[in-house]
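Ticket opened by: R.M.
Priority: normal
Category: complex prediction / small molecule

The reporter submitted a protein together with protoporphyrin IX containing FE and asked that the result be attached to this ticket for the collaborator who will pick it up next week. Submitted input follows.
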Amino acid sequence: MTTSTTPRTELPPFPLSRRGDVLPAEAERLRAEQPVARVRTMTGDEAWLVSNYQLAKQVLEDDRFSLKDTANPGVPRQYALTIPPEVVNNMGNINSAGLRDAVMKTLSPRADRELGSWLEAQAHRLLDRVIAEGAPADLRDAFAEPYSAALHCRLIGIPTDDWRRLMSGIDVAFITSPQPFEGSTPNWYKDLGYLLDRLNADPAPTRGLLGRFVELRRSPEVSEQVSDELLATVALSLFGAGAVSTSAFLQHAIIALAQQPELADRLRAEPAVIGRAVDELLRYNLSIGDALPRIALADVKLGEVEIRAGELVLVLIEGANYDPEVFPEPEKIDFDRVSNPHLAFGGGRHFCPASALGRTHAEIALTALVQRLPGLRLALPVEQLAWRPGFIKRLPERLPVLW
Ligand code: HEM
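Result attached by the on-call engineer:
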């Protein structure tokens, strides 16, 4: 029997390569030949992959491409949902519950005057231990994860010692799977239960987001409208969104500095460059392993392609951030780039609300690292790094270094 549907094998598969140290050749080829290309996702659905800067920005800034609607039943998907569908519209829920101010204050590095010196102390405390134990050291387990997680425990207002339980929840919540899997629901509710307990702990939390929520809950208008479950959901989703993004980016930045020691030497000699350096490392980093998904709410012309309402559009951040039209010599890490309008924090309505915090976190960590570990290099050939399969981030399973 013949059929008129496209054979499943003909479309390029998405996601692209898991390796995080080299730009996938496919990203470059697609950008040059077909910046809006039909691809097949791991669920077997078809999607449009957008891989140049101008069109990526257009999608992110056009509200006819919706993030919220990616959670609807029956829409084409990038991978199965592992969190409750309503959590996808996280910032929308935060805004409509009147929690925006509390959340934005929590995410603002300027709202916490002690944050900078506290982060610096965390970084040096972890590096003291790395140095005392000697090289080689795994900077993922001994530095990037505990440092990022400690920041997020402080933001949320939970004990730092509880970081591992929440980080291991993320290991499950951010799996990319073709179909829903058994562990994802209990994983979510286990961590939600933990945050509900912390919210209602006696004595009540006084610090961080939970401290703010406890205050807000005292006002009758808020307590009538906002359930404890919503407050705990907001706290859990912020921990999830932030801890993995910051830790993954830091690991990618460390790999880049370890491979190009002249860049680390420059940061040691000229610490004031760190702001521009972090932005350039953000542009260069490949930690986002999936694409930013949107569902078209209307028919929209995108470049040469007519996107139909209901179709899935995937924005490939590495496609945009290595676009030579905007970033000359994109493969080069250049701390002196004059203009660096990268999309590492997304764009438009869903632009990361914690970009300033993400930058501060990395600036302090990398400054401490280059000072304390001069001669930093990978302890194995870069090709031997094991990249985690089936995860939304490109993450090395171990990050062994020498110095
Ligand atoms: C280097 C660190 C970070 C990077 C590279 C990063 C990257 C991103 C990107 C690309 C988006 C856009 C997603 C989309 O458009 O679909 C985003 C959104 C978001 N990020 Fe970040 N992020 C970082 C740190 C953080 C931190 C520390 C937090 C919170 C503690 C956070 C919370 C969020 C939230 C809540 C959103 C959703 C915004 C919305 O839907 O409107 N991020 N981030």
